[in-house]
Amino acid sequence: xxxxxxxxxxxxxxxxxxxxxxxxxxxxxxxxxxxxxxxxxxxxxxxxxxxxxxxxxxxxxxxxxxxxxxxxxxxxxxxxxxxxxxxxxxxxxxxxxxxxxxxxxxxxxxxxxxxxxxxxxxxxxxxxxxxxxxxxxxxxxxxxxxxxxxxxxxxxxxxxxxxxxxxxxxxxxxxxxxxxxxxxxxxxxxxxxxxxxxxxxxxxxxxxxxxxxxxxxxxxxxxxxxxxxxxxxxxxxxxxxxxxxxxxxxxxxxxxxxxxxxxxxxxxxxxxxxxxxxxxxxxxxxxxxxxxxxxxxxxxxxxxxxxxxxxxxxxxxxxxxxxxxxxxxxxxxxxxxxxxxx
Length: 342
Description:
Blueprint (H helix, E strand, L loop, with lengths): L13 E5 L5 H11 L4 E4 L15 E4 L5 E7 L2 H7 L7 E6 L18 H4 L7 H17 L2 E3 L6 E2 L9 E5 L5 H8 L7 E3 L24 H20 L6 E7 L5 E9 L16 E9 L3 H4 L6 H25 L2 E4 L4 E2 L5
């Protein structure tokens, strides 16, 4: 039988609570997506390969200071004492240094509930990296996080992870990208900003502060030279390095696509050969009318309904872009997403 979790095991340790069908291998993939040096120091083992239940606890090192131990079996009584979801029948203990900073400012956006979980000071450094990863893993796997000290339970909503990014080494020009995005959202349009047509007529004829003593002819010549330079730039502009697309979703807000080069890539892509030659990020996101709801731990019904209608559109756009440029797709937690699952 798997090792049962005792309440005494929770001393100074945070707990990642997961459904029974989540395998240790899935957790390992999520760990290596965030922590470059993540590895099993002790692999969870089962006496029978056909038995999914591990009887030997594993030890997954996340960083030099933080480890994850499990899976433990969480009995019904323990679940009730901790207040974690009934479906959370297995768990992993996170042991990390307790490093705390200042308390959260009142009214600060707190979608993950960290201010509630750490009322005396938010985690920083290694503890912050580890705890935010726990919350991200719980969101991805349909689990929860129990926080040592406060006893707060964080149950992140998987449906809140709407935004997606397609990473590729292929650049699509704005018109080509628009054609791809319109396969999924026909109402999409380019958002290139307003073109500058140069200074208004008459500039240089009237002295401004600091040019009162300048000869009028010299002043006019300087402005003529400047206008000639501006004209050449307008006639032969530099290639665009970034642009955007927008789709008005009426009551549901806006779907936005931001395209541009990325100076940094998620840890999971750091070792991919093509990513070392320069990466283009196609960021597909949902912008609701009320941004405060987007940052709320428990948004209202209207927000959740709009989100439910928009998420399939975000998936469809990311799927169309991936077909066009290849590469990899990641979610808002920087975990890789299989395009076939979109």
